[in-house]
Amino acid sequence: MLFNSFQFLIFFPIVVALYFALPHRYRWALLLAASYYFYACWRVEYLTLIIASTLVDYFSGIQIGKSRTRRRKSLFLGFSLFANLGMLFAFKYFNFFSRSVHAVLAQFNILYAAPELNVLLPVGISFYTFQTLSYTIDLYLGKREPERHAGIFAVYVAFFPQLVAGPIERSTRLLPQFFEKHGFDRARAVEGLKLMLWGFFKKVAIADRLAYYVNTVYARPGDQSGLSLLLATVFFAFQIYCDFSGYSDIAIGAAKVMGFDLMTNFRQPYFSRSIREFWRRWHISLSTWFRDYVFIPLGGSRVAGALALYRNLMVTFVVSGMWHGANWTFVIWGGLHGLYMIVSIATARIRNGLISLSRIDRSPALLDAWRVFVTFNLVLAAWVFFRAADVSDAWLILSKISSSLLHPSVLPGQFASGFPAAQWRDIMFILAVLTVMNLYDWARWRGFRFLRSPLFTTFEVSTQFWFIAIFGMFNNQQFIYFQF
To answer: Where are the domains of the chain?
Structure first.
């Protein structure tokens, strides 16, 4: 079931009404049934994968809790890792690795009939497998005791607001909330509904409208000008932000209405002043997952020598790229961010020296603006690989954009012939909306007092509602991160 569907607008109020009408001891059963129904609306047979993952990690968790030796704990942790990552590999990566092996062997004239699995990628499999894995790893590390209530553990795995695209919650944070008795809180409900409306606004009124232009341009990059490709790339940066952060806002808001607190997943990432800061603001639940369960176990930043640190960073980001999809474009995207981080660390002294020499640090606002500009453009270049159909398309897009920027004399012609007047009006309107959205988002995170006034709240809600009604795209377009 999609959040941006009429079906969800009926489903959610019914679940909330039943949730607060039922005695506390039965609510977990309602949430489990609602969550399984929510997922089954997409493809009922793939419920077996969620149930299998739940049973594996519930059993593994109980056994890890009973084990008195490190070896026995490692055995059951290994069972959990093998089952979950094996399932993820089979459905998401098997065909990718099979084709890659075939391509490598073909270079040496070795005939190899690459086997392929004809299966559909289950929605949200990367999210709920990582959520259950964090549970068993935390048990192994002694961060919590095993959950013995099988039903509540199943709700933790399948909780419908964040089941298919996060935030990826930790058991230490979310599981205890299912034992708390939540009475209906009008203030929380209003806050949650406002957040859901903001998420719907970003998804159907901005992301889905940007998608039309981005999809058209990226479908045939060879036929496009450098200016068209640059504009489409900028639009994609905001499309994926509004799409994914919109989903997170709806998920967090829906949970808040029922009394649950999910972690913040985005904090104005395009205002970041460095790539390191970007990853503290973008998809926070995933970036902290990789920090805690990949980067730190590799040795983190407390390793002897810069090369070991660079290795840990690159491995973490490449694995993160592969998590997003079984395609070399995602591997390169992750590798680029790893390279950005390495170069940033390696050149820190040189850059600080140049800043002092130029005395630009005497104007902190100007320095911050420059850093935001550079960071955004680095992120933008990496987004080309994330969005392109394949690596060759990505290189073509980057070369065309670079050619246009390096030869500014061709830009006037591209401005004049690239788009008809009507399309330019649409583009300028979208750019104006994006500017207002970013300013509003900035004010929200700054916590300006006027945003909490009843008069502004009325203006805010009514503006978003009418903007969705007039400019929203109601074609049930799925969220981008559903494919991961």
So the answer is: 6-183, 185-225+239-266+421-484, 273-406
